[in-house]
Amino acid sequence: MTLSARLAVGAAAFALMFGACGLNLASAADLNKPIPSAVIDAPKSKASTSETLVLAGGCFWGQQGVFQHVKGVTKVVAGYSGGTKETATYRQVGTETTGHAEAVEITFDPRVVSAGDLLKIFFSVAHDPTQLNRQGPDSGPSYRSEIFYATPKQQEIATAYIKQLGEAKLFSGPIVTKVEALKAFYPAEDYHQDFLIHNPNHGYIVVNDLPKVANFKRVWPDMYSEKPVMITKMGS
Fold first, then answer.
1. CB 119 within 8 A of CB 63
2. Per-residue pLDDT for the chain (236 aa), expressed as one digit of tens each?
3. What is the pTM of this model?
4. 134-135 and 73-81 as β-strands: parallel, antiparallel, unpaired?
5. What distance in Å separates the CA atoms of residue 199 and residue 139, rounded to the nearest whole number?
6. In 3D, which of 204, 205, 222, 202 has the Cα closest to residue 213?
């Protein structure tokens, strides 16, 4: 969806907040509840102080907004992954022909939060893993659910967790999340960074993304940090 189209959707959704919100929640009825931790996870240790994980789950405004509040996360960048550098622009990704997904690169301290912890948030409150090539009002492969692993351990954790959650039958439909090796991550344009924080009253944010942050705080309070990490300055 182009930026102008997304803005239009946001305005319409805001004007019809209760109706639109009901539609979005109905399509994500499995979300906003605790789910089991990953049985296979990386133990918290002092061997490393920084690790990255790239996740795609719909519009990167909301994904960035959620993971900025995770304790132990030090940086979250909105961007693109899955395609080439030459096509990593918002305009081109919106054509749905580049192979890119809107994604977030999460930098975290593995001594505080694990990759499995991040995936628990990802699957429970950040997006609906049963929606194929769409999230809420946005549709197309750039809004797909995907985990781009940076290490063999991340691949093992992601694959095993999807199997674990599927076998537990926690969702009303099958999990469609893809797991793929990270080839590259390209930061999105500056105006997309910290968009939720800079635009909390935007209609799209109010209807689609602020509820995700609120649900994160409610469902996983021990992992929630009131102060989000930012890569821009307020007022910029």
1. no
2. 556 555 554 444 433 333 232 233 333 455 688 999 999 999 887 778 999 999 999 999 999 999 999 999 999 999 999 999 999 999 999 999 999 999 999 999 999 999 999 999 999 999 999 999 999 999 999 999 999 999 999 999 999 999 999 999 999 899 999 999 999 999 999 999 999 999 999 999 999 999 999 999 999 999 999 999 999 987 65
3. 0.89
4. unpaired
5. 22
6. 205
Report d(CA 167, CA 25) in Å as an integer: 24
Which of 1, 59, 66, 223 is flagged as catalytic? 59
Cβ atoms 110, 209 nearer than 8 A: no
What stretch of H or E contains 17?
A: helix 17-27
Cα dihedral angle (152, 183, 100, 225), rounded to 10 degrees?
60
**Catalytic residue check, 59:** yes
Domain spans, the chain: 3-35+45-223
Side-chain half-sphere of 116: how many Cα atoms within 13 Å?
19
Q: What is the CATH number of domain 3-35+45-223?
A: 3.30.1060.10
Residue written as token pair 């930061």? 187
DSSP 8-state symbol, 85: G
Which residues, in sequence order, are CB contacts of 123 under 8 Å at separation 6+?
A: 35, 129, 161, 165, 175, 177
Residue 106's alpha-carbon distances to 50, 82, 128, 141, 185, in angstroms, are 10, 16, 19, 21, 11
Class of residue 235 by CB neighbours under 10 A (exposed 0-12, middle 13-18, buried 19+): exposed
